[in-house]
Amino acid sequence: MPAVHAEGLFKIFGRRTDEAVRRLGDGASVADVRELGATPAVIDVSFTVEPGEIFVVMGLSGSGKSTLLRMLNGLLDATAGRVRVGGDDLTTLDAKALRRLRQERMSMVFQHFALFPHRTVVDNAAYALEVRGMDRRTRRAKAREALALVGLEQWADAKPDELSGGMKQRVGLARALAAETDLMLMDEAFSALDPLIRREMQDQLLELQAQLGKTIVFITHDLNEAMRLGDRIAIMRDGRIVQIGTPEQILDEPADDYVAQFLADVDRGRVFTAGHVMVAAPAAVPLGAAPADVLTAMRAHRTGTVLVGDGNGGLAGVATEEAVRTAAESGAPSLVGLPLQPPVSVRTTTLLADLLTPAAQDEVPVTVVDADGRLVGVVPRGAVLAALGGATGNGRPVPSGTGSPHTAGATAVGTREAVRG
Ligand SMILES: Nc1ncnc2c1ncn2[C@@H]1O[C@H](COP(=O)(O)OP(=O)(O)OP(=O)(O)O)[C@@H](O)[C@H]1O
Ligand SMILES: [Mg+2]
Predict the structure, then answer these.
(1) What mean pLDDT is predicted for residues 157-162?
(2) What's the gap in Å between 218 CA and the centre of ligand 1?
(3) HSE of 132 in the Cβ direction (CA atoms, 13 Å)?
């Protein structure tokens, strides 16, 4: 069952709203219905958010993002259409049932998060639980856990005015997390933060998401933020959704010129990752292989380096053509004793911007490992630059598990990890 489902959703402010919906449905323009005295804010919006997904709604100021979000949480009645949260159709719930659903099943984080100045940080974080009627002890314990998740446990007993803007916003996040709802609705939650703190918060949200598996509807007017955070992005323009897709789909095939205009500003290096540009790793050669055979194979494949397995499912290192040739010429029976370079290893989540240095500095290929250290691919020379230049269709994500068994567990052999920054 989808976490959130919106179907044919309209919100019209002002007069003759039902007539406005009817006319818009018949193809009338926004200008036409404005003549009725109606202000269309959300027009015929439909989408589905799957559980565990970060669904970003992106659009310019006034495009209807906040209005849409307020219909998802039931604070605003839809003029037409339906909203389902889990199995419940919000349009059919009475006020009391709606309030309960809002308190128990969803939590919200806004741009200007109002903390109670006279309460401690932990009591601020516990607020949603207090509203729910949870006893003081339990709610404080849960609030402390949530503060720990956002790295603020030492500040539990401080007052909000002792915190920086970024820390206050983290308290807002902790309040939402303490509520332990599956669904989080975030409206420009990071927009008031300066760029560095904002990036930190984005990283933290991604980490929390990976850890907790929340469903998040995240509103932003910043396409870079949308691309970093979103599993899928809905782009709104003048009340309508003009495109829904993954960041890659939107970059590859913008639905119209309006979307394409935004893309010019996308910082690809901070959107795409090693996982996007890698290709399946070539099979590693065993240490026992004969140097002459390896040399022949390398020449046939026109490759200057080869991955060498350690025989235990790990990677011993990378051999250059020169080293293999020297071994072959000296008549060595195997690759044992060959000087190997340590593999340069990055995570699938490493940003392209952070791949430039390892990709450029070393002659050894950049290997890509997953969170468990398994080799899942390599980044071909040039792939990073090609992706930065716009050729995103070049390297498709490789499904995990395609690495050869010889090379599994690559990080166990002292690989270097590119730092994410
Ligand atoms: N209560 C209201 N009464 C009348 N018009 C409204 C009301 N709320 C919003 N609007 C109008 O609806 C449209 C969409 O507003 P909304 O706040 O949803 O946009 P937004 O995308 O969230 O913008 P921002 O990025 O500035 O927050 C705007 O034209 C706005 O003026
Ligand atoms: Mg808004």
Answers:
(1) 95
(2) 17
(3) 23
Domains 50-270 and 275-417 share a fold: no
For residue 126, what is the DSSP state?
A: T
Q: Can you give the pLDDT at residue 82? A: 95
Containing 77, the helix (H) or strand (E) segment is: none
List the structure tokens of 272. Answer: 């795409």
What are the C-alpha distances in Å from 5 to residues 23, 87, 216, 250? 24, 9, 13, 21
Give, for ligand 1, the residue of 9, 10, 63, 218 to mutate: max count of ligand atoms closer than 8 Å to Cβ. 63
The mean of the pLDDT values for the chain is 86
Residue 200 has pLDDT above 90, yes or no: no
What does the alpha-carbon distance between residue 271 and residue 247 come to, in Å, rounded to a whole number? 8
- pTM as predicted: 0.77
Q: How far away, in angstroms, is 64 Cα from ligand 2 center? A: 7
Strands 232-237 and 240-245: antiparallel
Kindly calculate the radius of gyration of the chain based on its CA atoms and give it in whole angstroms: 26
Q: Which of 274, 252, 277, 273 is nearest to 263 (CA)?
A: 252
Tens-digit pLDDT profile for residues 65-106: 999 999 999 999 999 999 999 989 998 999 999 999 998 899
Determine the atom of ligand 1 nearest the C-alpha atom of 219: 22
Query: How far away, in angstroms, is 198 Cα from ligand 1 center?
Result: 24
- Torsion of the alpha carbons at 186, 187, 191 and 193, rounded to the nearest 10: -50
Question: Which residues have a beta carbon within 5 Å of ligand 2, which is an ion?
Answer: 66
Helix (H/G/I), strand (E/B), else coil: 225: helix
So where are the chain's domains?
Answer: 50-270, 275-417
Q: What is the pLDDT of residue 361?
A: 66
Angle at 6 (CA atoms; ends 2, 9), nearest 5 degrees: 175
Q: Give tens-digit pLDDT for 205-227.
A: 988 888 889 999 999 999 989 99
Q: CA 188 to CA 326: how far, in whole Å?
A: 60
CA 74–ligand 1 middle distance (angstroms):
16
As assigned by CATH, the class of the 275-417 domain is alpha beta
Instruction: Name the residue at shortest CA distance from atom 28 of ligand 1.
Output: 62
- Tally of residues, the chain: 421
Pocket of ligand 1 from Cβ distances under 6 Å: 13, 39, 41, 59, 61-67, 221
Tell me if the domain spanning 50-270 has CATH number 3.30.1490.100.
Answer: no
CA of 255 relative to ligand 2 center, distance in Å: 23
Distance CA 46, CA 299 (A): 55
